[in-house]
Predict the 3D structure of the following.
Amino acid sequence: MVIELLTKRYPGMRAWLMQRLTALIMAFYSVMLLGRILVLQPATYEEFLGFFQPAWFRIASWLFWICLSIHAWLGIRDVFKDYVPNMYVRSLLLKILVLLLWVYMAWASWLFLM
Amino acid sequence: MKFSIYRFNPDVDKKPYMQDYDVVLEDGDQMLLDALLRIKDLDDSLSLRKSCREGVCGSDSMNINGKNGLACVTKLSDLDEPVVLRPMPGLPVIRDLVVDMTQFFEHYNSVKPYLINHDAPPETERLQSPEDRAKLDGLYECILCGACTTSCPSFWWNPETFVGPAGLMQAYRFMADSRDQAMDERLENLEAPDRLYRCHNIMNCVDVCPKKLNPSLAIAKIKDLKFEQAREHKCNAKKHIEIKVL
C-alpha cells in the first residue's frame, strides 16, 4: 500500500510520504549511530577509521545519506516554493540545489563505498 | 475606548493608513461590533461588512489585535487598548476592513462542496444513521468567514494553488458524508502537489476559528483516506489479476 502511494499516480502524497519515510530511516540510523559511539567510544583518527570499517555500517551510512539527500530536496524545495515567488530565481536555486546534492551524494558514495 | 483602524479607500488614498478613534461606549455595548457601529455613527466613511451580529453569517471577520476573528462575537472586555483592527491578511482590500474574497470562494468551489450522489432521488430524504450523521459534527458548522484561511501562512505563500483550511475542511465534510458517492473523485481533485500538501501543520487555523473547529484534523483525515484509497486500489488490482488467472 505504501509502495502504491509512492507511485506517479499520487504526486502530492508521494512527496509528503517520502519526506516522512526518509525522516524515519534517518531517526533510526541516528539512534544506532549514537549507540555505536557510546559503546565503541572512538577517540582517535584510527579508531574512527575502524568505526566505519564494517561493510554493513558503511552501507547503512550510505543509505542514510541517500535519505538525507531526498529529505533535503523535498524540504528545501518547499522552502523555495514558499519564499521565492520569482519563477526564474526559484528555478535557478532548485538547479543549484540539485547539483549540490548530487556532488554531496558522489562524495558520500566515495567515502562510504570505495 | 481607544481604537486604531486600518483605512484605505483606493479612489482617494495613495496608500493605507491607521486612523485613531476614541469612542464613548454605552450600556449594552459588549461586543466589538457594537463599538464599530458607534464609530460608524461618528465617521460613516468607515467600511466594514456585517449582517447577523451573532457569529452565524461570518461577514464581520477581521484581524483584531493581530488575530483573525469575528467582531460580533469578540468581547470588548477581552481586548487590550488601543484595539488595532485590520482587514484579514492575504486577500486584496476593497476598502477599509472589507476584503475581496473571490479567491477564497474559488478555492471553496473547487472542492465541489455539495453532495454527489448518482442514485435516483428517493421519495423522501436520503437517510443517515445517527452514527454516520455524527461524523459530520465539527465539519458542517463552518460559516466560511475566512478567518482560518487568511491566517494560514501556506495560503499567504501560495494563494493561487493551496486550497486553504476552510476549503479543505469542506472537502473532508463531503468525503465523510455517508450519502456522498464521489470519494475517489474528491481525493484525486486534491492530489496535485500544492492543493492539499502545502499544509505544514502550522495550525493557525485551529487557533483562530471562531466556531472552535479543527481544519488541521480534517486535513490529516484526508491523508488517512488517501491511504485507504491506495489499499482499496491494491485489493481491486489483486481481484482483477485473480479473475484474469481464473
The first strand of chain B starts at residue 2 and ends at 7. Residues 2-99 of chain B form a domain with the Ubiquitin-like (UB roll) fold (CATH 3.10.20.30). Chain B has a mean pLDDT of 92. The interface with chain A takes residues 153-154, 157-158, 190-198, 200, 223, 226-227, 230-231, 233-234 of chain B (CB under 8 Å).
